[in-house]
Amino acid sequence: MTTPLRRDAARNWERIVSVARDLVDGGTPLQLNDVARRAGVGVATVYRHFATPEALLETVAAPCLEDLVGRGRQALAAADPWHGLTDFLLRTVEAQVTDAALPPVAAAATDALPRTTELKESLASVGTALLARAREAAVVRPDLAAADLVPLVCGIAHAANVCGGTPADRAETARRYLAALLDGLRATPPGA
Questions:
Q1: Residue range 62-80: mean pLDDT, rounded
Q2: Coil/strand/helix, residue 144
């Protein structure tokens, strides 16, 4: 069990994470000394909370990962397996293009925080279960493997990011690309 932070320590933690969020959203790599300066706290305070820039980045990405896991679990409860899978993929690709912290954390081969590993494993598990459910309902191509989902979603996110624009523009592009991909993933194409 984790001991709750004192009020001043909790405020510092929140300030550090907020500054990190702003830096990540602005495309600035996290450097703990820079974060400390911008947050108005000592470098030791930042290091006390986050041993590495990766740990801080993972903390910034955690709410998005938690949301995706929750949405995946909701999708598993959807009456229509195809709708559950496609809704989950849509939420995932939107997150990839609107939350700058997510792509590097999702792509990292190792994690700095055990919670990140837990969230990534839960996300993969939910995606695998959604695909299995869609496969059992015969609404998705039988040759589509769970291992295919991450590269497909990342490919769409990369393509949308290359097109540029605001996060909303990139999300709209990603939705359009995902719709085209989903037509190819259906066991029976629409209108056939």
A1: 97
A2: coil
